[in-house]
Amino acid sequence: MVLIVRSVRARQNRKHDPVEYYLGWGGYSHPIGLDKKITKEEAEAVAARGGAYLIGYFNADGKLVRAVKMYRGSVFFDFVYEYHPNGKRKSAKVTNAKGIVTARKYDESGSGGPGNPLFW
Predict the structure, then answer these.
(1) Which strands, in side-by-side order, build the sheet including 89-96?
(2) At 37, is the secondary structure helix, strand, or coil?
(3) Contact 68/58 with Cβ under 8 angstroms?
(4) Are 67 and 55 in contact (CB under 8 A)?
(5) Hey, which residues does 56 pair with through a beta bridge?
(6) Which of 24-33, 47-56, 58-67 has the lowest mean pLDDT?
(7) pTM score of the predicted model
C-alpha cells in the first residue's frame, strides 16, 4: 500500500512538458494516471502499426488538463479536466469515440456529487 501511495505522489509531483505522449493509463478515477511516457516519434510509430497511444496536456502547475487516446488515427476518448483554486479536481468531461459527452462535477474537496454519471 505504501509503495502505491508513493508511486502516485511521485507521478503527481513530476514536472511535465505542456504536451507529452504515453502508451498507457491506469485507474478509474479522475484525472486518469498516464503511464509509460514515450516520444512523439514513438507515438507516430505506434499509430503506423495500428496501435493506441495517449496525448497528455498539462497546465503550468503540472496538472493534467486533457488526455486524448488515439486509436487507428482517430480519437477514441477525450478527457478534459478543470481544477478548483485549491488544486482539487473540479470537473471531468469525457467525449467517447461516438461523440457522446459525459460530465462530472466535484466539490472543493474533490469529491463527486450523488448525481454524477458513471464514465465506465
Answers:
(1) 33-38, 19-26, 52-58, 64-71, 74-83, 89-96, 101-105
(2) strand
(3) no
(4) yes
(5) 20, 67
(6) 24-33
(7) 0.83
